[in-house]
Amino acid sequence: MKFLACIILIAFVLMISCDSSQRDSRSGNANSPSIEVSSFGRIPDAGEVKMYKLDNGRGMVVEIINYGAIIKSIQVPDDKGDIRDITLGFDRLEGYLTEHPYFGTVIGRYGNRIANGSFQIDGQQYSLATNNGPNHLHGGLNGFDKVLWDEVRQWKDQDSLHLELSYLSPDGEEGYPGNLQVILRYSLTSNNEIIINYKARTDQKTHVNLTNHSYFNLDDSPTIEDHELKIIASQFTPVDNTLIPTGVIDNVSGGPFDFTSLKRIGEHIGSNNQQIEIGGGYDHNFVLNKPSLESPSITVRSNLSRIAMDVYTLEPGVQFYTGNFLDGSIVGKSGGVYEKRSGFCLETQHFPDSPNHEDFPSTLLNPGEEYTTTTIYRFYNF
Ligand code: GLA
Predict the structure, then answer these.
(1) Nearest Cα residue to atom 7 of ligand 1
(2) pLDDT tens-digit profile of 190-217?
(3) Are 46 and 150 in contact (CB under 8 A)?
(4) Which domain holds residue 222?
(5) How many Cα atoms within 13 Å fall on the side-chain side of residue 93?
(6) Residue 31: which pLDDT band, with cuts at 50, 70 and 90?
(7) Which of 113, 187, 230, 252 is the most buried (most CB within 10 A)?
């Protein structure tokens, strides 16, 4: 009898401990938040590249390197609790030193294109590097994505881990006027959010439009066409055949550019539409109805992994790019081949070519003013 009671007791204890360990691994409360710093290699003549691993202790990890202020990985749990890296990129520094389409990088001084690489400020003409046909793209030949950023500080507070990086872009770099001091803050919160805050100051009038160029794929499918997307934008800026806005602001009104309610990305991507044809898919700036850090302007989700991402931003626009230029020639993380449309970008930003469009929200930064903007990416299962 005693023996039987003993067996029952042991079975009961085992059941309880098994149940509570399942609970722990699901809630992911096992670790305390941490920032781990390691070497990611060296760049000849520039120095050591550091990698910062931010782990919020709740199953979400973000790796950032100070070359190009690149987000190297975003690791989030899927609905089964398995951790997935949902960004495109490389395992090693060598990959990031090759010509690549801005995987995870910060973009500056100017996200997206400036027509003919030129603009005027107070009647003076400035000529920028032209690195995309006749146009200037993503800051030029050696933009903020290809420089080594300095660590300012890293710290933890109650809810978040923070990393601050800085870069001083000298007067005349890539043709832009003014010394521009930029400070970038990455935070990872206990609520599975990445918050990027950008700040900049200049000593001469200049144009600034900073963004992040992460490519997402929430379920590792060969293309992202089955992801569902919502962008609360009633308008977008159509482009000419060099992808410069024509200046017209068009209504999305039910057409291929209408993502005002959740829609498969691939739903209209092959449609017979002049703008889709020019972009080879989506490569367009959407005019956000209500940029805000209180409610998301964008939601994207995968029904396979049941991972969802909400994007909150203070920027007036977002460049939705469906990786149309990827063509299988890049071998990325774990030997994966990046085929056309294997990732999408949501580059929160001011509109492309704003310096040449007076009626677009201005990107001009004056001495004495502070450029500051924030974008939040929140991850969850649904
Ligand atoms: C942006 C542009 C695209 C392309 C990619 C990088 O999203 O709008 O046209 O240049 O960057 O390949």
Answers:
(1) 321
(2) 999 999 999 999 999 999 999 999 999 9
(3) no
(4) 34-381
(5) 19
(6) confident
(7) 113
Q: What does pTM read for this prediction?
A: 0.92
Long-range contacts of 308-311 (CB under 8 A, 24+ apart): 308/218, 308/379, 308/380, 308/381, 308/382, 309/216, 309/218, 309/377, 309/378, 309/379, 310/376, 310/377, 310/378, 310/380, 311/346, 311/348, 311/375, 311/376, 311/377, 311/378
204 located within any domain: yes
Is 250 part of a structural domain of the chain? Answer: yes
> Does pLDDT of 264 surpass 80?
yes
Tell whether ligand 1 has an atom less than 6 A from the beta carbon of residue 351.
Answer: no
Give me ligand 1 centre to Cα 324, in Å. 9
Atom 3, ligand 1: which residue's CA is nearest? 283
pLDDT band at 80 (very low <50, low <70, confident <90, very high): very high
**Minimum CA distance residue for ligand 1 atom 5:** 101
41 lines ligand 1 (CB under 6 A): no
Q: pLDDT higher for 333 or 22?
A: 333
Of residues 215, 268, 254, the one with CA closest to residue 88 = 215
Amino acid at 274: Q
**What ligand 1 atom has the least distance to the C-alpha of 352?**
8
- For the chain, the domain total comes to 1
Q: Is residue 356 part of a domain?
A: yes
Structural domain includes residue 18: no
Active site residues: 213, 347
Query: Distance from the CA of 144 to the center of ligand 1, in angstroms?
Result: 15
Cis peptide leading into 26, omega within 30 of 0? no
Gap from CA of 306 to ligand 1 centroid (Å): 27
Closest CA to 98 of 327, 329, 323: 329
pLDDT tens digits, 120-170: 999 999 999 999 999 999 999 999 999 999 999 999 999 999 999 999 999
**Which element (helix H / strand E) includes 186?**
strand 180-189
| Residue 184 Cα to ligand 1 middle (Å) | 22
Residue 326, ligand 1, Cβ within 6 A: no
**Residues pairing with 360 in the sheet:** none
